[in-house]
Amino acid sequence: MNSKLPKYKLTYKPYGAHSILIEWPNEIDENILNNALCFKRVIEKKEIKQKVYIKLSYSSLLITYNTAIRNIYDKISQLKTLYNIANDFSRSPIKLWHIPVCYDTSFGIDLERISTQNEISKQEIIRQHTASIYTVYFIGFLPGFLYLGGLNNRLHIPRLSTPRLAVEKGAVAIGGNQTGVYPNVSPGGWNIIGNTPISFFVPNTNPPCFAKSGDKIRFHSISKLEYDTIKALVKADTYQLESEVTFD
Amino acid sequence: MIKVLKSGFYDTIQDLGRLDFQEFGVPISGAMDHYSAKIANALVGNTSSEAVLEMTLLGPKLEFQHDNLISITGADLSPSINGIAINRNKAIFVKLGDILCFGKPKLGTRGYLAVSGGFKTELSMNSRSMCKNITNAFKIKTNAILPTLPFRIKNTPNPKASLKTHPKHFSNSTLKVFKGPEFELLSPKQQDSLLHYNFCISQKNSRMAYQLVETLENQLKPIITSLVLPGTVQLTPSGKLIILMRDCQTTGGYPRVLQLSETAINMLSQKFTNDYIHFKITN
C-alpha cells in the first residue's frame, strides 16, 4: 500500500560547516518519529554523490556530510525535494523485541521507594511495566541506550537528585516519564527496578544494537534462576532473543 | 613494537575517529587536535588516518623494540631520546632500545607521536581510537606493548621536509564559531555577553567536554533530548557553558548556542585549565 505521508512544516538549519539540522514540531510523537524515519531512508537511498551520516532524535534529523557544505541553499533545496517524494514505501519493517527482566529486589533497588512514593504495590509496578509496548525513538547518551516512549503514567517518577556513580550493566530503570536499560556500567540518576541479562550493545557485531529506531520493546518478568540461565547463554553467545516482525 | 615503561598523565591511541556508528550512540572520538595529528602522520609518510599516540601535558616514557621513524607534533612537552633533547615537527630515526621521554610541558596541552606505518593497536568498529565500552583499553597503561609495523627504509619521506604547527595555533585565544540551532532564542543581552566575554576554562576539561567558569544569565529551559556534535556549545539552566569535545555523547538536552569550527576544536584542544578564550562568529 502506497499511502501518502503526512507532510510537516520542517525547519532546516545549518549546524557547523558540515551538517544540517532538520526539525519537526518539538514534541515526542510517534507520527513524527515515523515521518522522520521515512525521510532518513529516502536521504540514505538518494544521496549517492556523497557519504552522509544521519542521526535521529525525538523530533530532528542531523545530516553530516563528509566534506564542508559549499552552498547551504542548494543542499537545503535538494533535501526539500527529497522530503516531497518520501512516502510510506520508504518505511522498513519493524520488530517487536521480548526482553526478559528480573524484577527481584536484589536488582530492583528502588522498587520499594517507588512503591511508597507513588502509592502502588511492587507487584503492580512490575505488572504495569511489563504490560506496555514501548517504542524505540532513538539511541543516545551511551552506546546502545534506547530512548523508549510509552511508560504508564502511574510509574512516572523524578530522577534521583544525586546520580549514582556506577549503575550496573543491564539495569532497567525509570527517569521521569521515560524507561530504559543501561547497556553498560555508567553513572546514572534513574530509579532502578530490575535487570536484564540481555546485552544491548555489542561492539564489532553488525549491527551493534539489535534494536533500531521505530522498533518496539516489551519486557517480561523472569525469576532469578531464569536470569542466571539466560545470562550464561548470552555469555556463551547461544541465546536467541525473541522477536516478531510487525508492520503496525 | 613499543614498550610503555611508564604511562603519562593521559595517553591514548587515536586516529580520526569512528563516524559510522553515531546512530547507535557511539561517540566519534579521534585525536583532539586533528591538525597536529595529521602533521605528525605526514612527517613520517603516513596517510592522515593512521593511528597516533595522543599525550596530555605529561608524556609517557617509551622504549622502541625495533628501529623506526617517528615524529612528535602538537604541544611542546620537552621530548628527549636517551636523555638528549630532540626537535618536534620533523621525522627522526630511532633505534632498537632507544628511550623516548618527555619533561616539562612548555607550550600547549596535547602532543602527538606518530610512527612509520601507524600504531596497530586494537581495531574496534573501524577505528583504533580508544573509547570506553568500544575498545578494551581506553587509556594506555604502564607496561603496555604498542604494536607497530617493522620499519621499511623505502617508506622514508624526504628527511629534510618540514611541516610545522603554526605558533598561532597555540597562542590565539579567538575561537571561530557558527551560531548554534538555539542561538536565536537567546536575548540580545545574552548574545552580546556570549560574543564579548573572555571565558576562562575551568578545571573540568577532558576529552569529553570543556566547561567554562563564567556564567551567563539564563532563563532558557532545557530542550527535549536532541542531537549534538563535537564542538557544540551548550548552555545549562544554571548559565554554565559546556563545550563538547571529541569523546562527547551523540545526544544532549541543553540548548545548543554555538558550534565551534573544526579549527576552533583543534585550537581549544591545546588549551587547559585557566586559559582564556573568546568566541567570534564566522560565516
Characterization of the model:
The complex is a heterodimer of chains A (248) and B (283). Chain A is an alpha+beta fold and 248 residues long. Chain A folds into two domains: 2-90, Gyrase A, domain 2; 94-246, Cyclophilin (Beta Barrel), CATH 2.40.100. Helices cover 24% and strands 29% of the residues of chain A. Chain A contains five helices and 14 strands. Chain A has a five-stranded mixed beta sheet, with helices on one face. In chain A, helix 1 (30-46) crosses helix 2. Chain B folds into two domains: 2-166, no CATH class; 172-281, Cyclophilin-like (Cyclophilin, Beta Barrel). Chain B has helices spanning 34-43, 168-171, 188-196, 262-268; strands at 2-6, 12-14, 52-56, 61-64, 68-76, 79-81, 84-85, 92-94, 99-102, 107-115, 145-146, 174-179, 199-205, 209-212, 226-227, 232-235, 241-244, 251-252, 256-260, 276-281. In chain B, a hairpin with a 2-residue loop joins strand 6 and strand 7. Chain B is elongated. Chain A binds chain B through residues 13-17, 19, 21, 23, 26-28, 53-62, 64, 66, 138-145, 147, 183-184, 201, 203-204, 207-209, 213, and chain B through 19-27, 124-125, 133-135, 178, 180-181, 223-227, 229, 231, 249-251, 259-262.
Short description:
Chain A is of the alpha+beta class and 248 residues long. Chain A has helices at 30-46, 72-85, 111-117, 122-131, 224-235, and strands at residues 11-15, 19-23, 52-56, 60-65, 94-101, 134-139, 146-149, 164-167, 171-175, 178-181, 186-188, 191-195, 216-221, 242-246. Chain A has 5 helices and 14 strands.
What is the fold's blueprint, element by element?
The complex is a heterodimer of chains A (248) and B (283).
Chain A: E1 11-15, E2 19-23, H1 30-46, E3 52-56, E4 60-65, H2 72-85, E5 94-101, H3 111-117, H4 122-131, E6 134-139, E7 146-149, E8 164-167, E9 171-175, E10 178-181, E11 186-188, E12 191-195, E13 216-221, H5 224-235, E14 242-246
Helix pairs in contact in A: 1-2
Chain B: E1 2-6, E2 12-14, H1 34-43, E3 52-56, E4 61-64, E5 68-76, E6 79-81, E7 84-85, E8 92-94, E9 99-102, E10 107-115, E11 145-146, H2 168-171, E12 174-179, H3 188-196, E13 199-205, E14 209-212, E15 226-227, E16 232-235, E17 241-244, E18 251-252, E19 256-260, H4 262-268, E20 276-281
